[in-house]
Amino acid sequence: MDAALSDEQHEIRRTLRELLLKRCGPEDVRAAVRTPAGHDDALWRLLAERLGLPGLAVEPRYGGAGCGPTEMALACEETGRVLLPSPLLATAGLVAPLIAALGTRTQRAELLPQLVSGELTGALVLPDGHLTAALGLTGANDGLWAGGGRAGGIQARPAGDGPGWRLYGESAQVLDGHSAGLLLVAAHAGGYARGRTLLFALWPRRARGVTRTRLTTLDETRPQARVELRDAAADLLGSDADAGADVPGALARLGGGVAAAVAAEAVGAADRALERTVEYVCSREQFGRPIGSFQAVKHRLADLYVAVQTARSAAYYAAWAAGAAPAADGTGAAVVGGLALAQALEAQRTVAGEAVQLHGGIGVTWEHDVQLYFKRAASDELLFGPVHRLRERAAESAGLFAARAEREAVAL
């Protein structure tokens, strides 16, 4: 691994930071989350047109930049710094790679250019919102998260009146599910005897039987929705249902890159929260001197700095591992990504909590910006954690629990 960033990667970071500083201040964030879409659509289109953000990891033949997980992580770090409300993770991190991996040539040619241009946004609908389980980050991706038989999860059956499929079921937690123009739905097909998990493309504004309800969330900068499907028409992603596309495998191979992107977002948020805290303690005076000059405060800030830098190194390594992993097996990258994500989520929680403490009474007020970072930290750990399960999954993959069980059996 070469730890140094290339000139192109530095340029991606610099350009995106400059644009977001101009267009995404705290008041802009507050205004954006209260729009029906939950994000600034004009800014999203600008990011797509000027920087090609939605297409960073999409092949050039579909209009993308053809970059890898490292560039995606760098972009996410910058969006995390400003808590940018955007469909970046759902569209570019989840939906676009799955279409590229499992879609037919026609589907890729039709959908990917629209996603890259910012004209279309996407969301991944999983039963009960089991995102980390489906990505293989908190457990083995054995498909159990998708439900089974004729009950539970989201079910799919061939349409009786022509081509296509019908979906029924619901997902309680879908990132950007209320506003996405395209839903990729993971559904169980084939009943009990020939059950398998397939992905379906659903256009919610065209299909009947689709109800989307935006949820009230702790972190408004990451909108979520409940999606209900009642005999909704959808198209299979791929060409042949009987061939049984390896949807769990595709999601597992995606896990390392998604974990690296979320970890980088958390690092960006933690870094900016720490910067704001340092600025405050250098200006806030007590007993005739800045509180940042007190040794106890210096020690706390030094610990936070180490935590952020450690998490950043882990996130970068996870992004490199995701890009270097063989296409046939992303399990190892998912484990590395899970560990990096655990490190970043823990650092983000610690920094945000200390930021509130060091800001004193104003840190808990609704009007102050530091509470936005605290909410992001708490919400991220609920959505993508918990931290102990991410680490437990890594230990399971390394065989640590099996080795301990063998030693205990020998001792008995």
Automatic annotation (TrEMBL):
Domain of life: Bacteria
Cofactor(s) it depends on: FAD
Sequence ranges assigned to domain Acyl-CoA dehydrogenase/oxidase N-terminal in this UniProt record: 6-119
Occurrences of domain Acyl-CoA dehydrogenase/oxidase C-terminal (ranges): 260-397
Pfam family, one: Acyl-CoA_dh_N
InterPro entries membership: Acyl-CoA_Oxase/DH_mid-dom_sf (IPR046373), AcylCo_DH-like_C (IPR036250), AcylCo_DH/oxidase_C (IPR009075), AcylCoA_DH/ox_N (IPR013786), AcylCoA_DH/ox_N_sf (IPR037069), AcylCoA_DH/oxidase_NM_dom_sf (IPR009100)
Keyword vocabulary terms for this entry: FAD, Flavoprotein, Oxidoreductase
Family, per entry: Belongs to the acyl-CoA dehydrogenase family.
Protein name: Acyl-CoA dehydrogenase family protein
Top-level taxonomy: Bacteria, Bacillati, Actinomycetota, Actinomycetes, Kitasatosporales
